[in-house]
Amino acid sequence: MKLFERKHRSLSIMIGLVLLTMLFAACGSANTGSSSTTTSTTGGKGCMKIGVLLPENATSARWDSQDRPLLQKDIPQVLSGATVDYTNAQGNADLQQTQAQADLTKGDCILVVAPSDSIKAAAIVSAAKVKGVPVISYDRLTYSNDLNYYVSFDNTKVGQLQGQYVADHYQSFVSSNGTKNTVMIDGSQTDNNALLFAKGAHSALDPLFNSGALKKVFEKYTPDWNNATAQTEMQAALTANQNKVAISYVANDGMANNVIAALKAVKLNGKVLVTGQDATVAGIHNILTGDQSMTVYKAISKEAMATAQLVAAISNGTGTSSLVNGQTTIPQNGGANIPSVLETPVAVDKTNIKSTVVADGFVTVQAICAGLPSGTDGVCP
Question: Helices (H), strands (E): how many in the chain?
Fold first, then answer.
């Protein structure tokens, strides 16, 4: 009897241990499951629903005329069966966060975000991370150490091209205007690209300012890249300097067009060196009329295709090392290095319009030559 009782107790203990082990295993499984509902680590593998969030339309025609159709075409082309949810923040960073949350709620599992505000858009990356959704920052850098990838151009190089053009051509404008006065109309300070453009431009212009070859009399960042604000800034610079200006560094074509309007009002258009960026139809047209000196061509088709290829690699679970060609350091919060694809920008003036933007089909001759005499700069038929 005692032997039976000992065996019974031993069996009871063993059963108890098994049940206890199963209970802990169940608890562990439940905790893992609970965690995965809020912090899924799918990482975008198998994803076929892509959210594309662009920043605005008002200050540059590129976003709706170039980036949107290219991304909507390239992503499904490279990742067969993928769908694209497109939204535009219309310059409103808070609206962009709402749009991103809506995309995540709908089940978009990779986000491509050109931030309206580089700092505020970090909240989008945080919300995406909670759901295990990778974020590709497109064209403009999002200030988040959790960002997965960045696709853009070498934006410091963009500014260097603008500044170097001034350095190579300023002397004739200084001579004809009888002044060394230089105005700088920078982009939006909440856009990391604008900071890089200014940095690049200053690398070429500061030696001229320091030597006295040029004199910087005005420089401002322009909130939200607002074209009308750029015109007001140029008017203020002209008034403060009795209309004596030889150089106007302007960060993009949209603002340059309004700067030119301010110069026209005092009959200085065509007499002041004006820079730009984006190679827009209006910008190239202004170069052909002689009112703008140069722009910077960024082959958006390459940027969009690089983004589509990254999306496809993430979804397919294949490596991205062959696609990435550099790293970009987040300029705050510890400065994580983000794997990046950085395309090369090209300076464009009247000497190479045909061999760059026209040859690539980026703009049409008909559009840029509208209203211009036949034979203008060897471009217009």
Answer: 12, 13
| CA 122 centroid distance within chain | 14
pLDDT at 332: 85
Residue-by-residue DSSP string for 101-120: HHHHHHT--EEEE--SSTTT
Give the CATH class of 155-298+347-378: alpha beta
Judged against a pLDDT cut of 70, whether residue 335 lies above it is answered with: yes
The two structure tokens encoding residue 139 = 């064209």
Q: List pLDDT tens digits, range 211-243.
A: 999 999 999 999 999 999 999 999 999 999 999
pLDDT digits (tens, 9 = 90+) for 244-259: 999 999 999 999 999 9
* Per-chain mean pLDDT for the chain: 91
Residue 44 scores a pLDDT above 80: yes
Q: Which CATH architecture has domain 49-153+299-343?
A: 3-Layer(aba) Sandwich (3.40)
User: Residue 299, SS3?
Assistant: coil
Q: Do domains 49-153+299-343 and 155-298+347-378 have the same CATH topology?
A: yes
Instruction: Quickly list H helices, 293-342.
Output: 300-316
Cβ pair 296, 347 in contact under 8 A? yes
Q: What angle do CA 123, 124, 127 make, to 5 degrees?
A: 85
Query: Looking at residue 59, what DSSP letter applies?
Result: S
Return the DSSP state at 356.
Answer: I
Break the chain into its structural domains and give their ranges: 49-153+299-343, 155-298+347-378
pLDDT tens-digit series, residues 158-168: 999 999 999 99
- In 32-190, beta strands by DSSP E: 49-54, 83-88, 110-113, 135-138, 149-153, 181-186
HSE-up (13 A, CA, CB side) for residue 62: 23
Cα separation, 250 vs 185, whole angstroms: 5
Asked if pLDDT for residue 327 goes beyond 60, the answer is yes
CA distances, 66 to each of 82, 168, 299 (Å) = 20, 31, 10
Q: What CA–CA distance (Å, rounded) separates 85 from 57?
A: 17
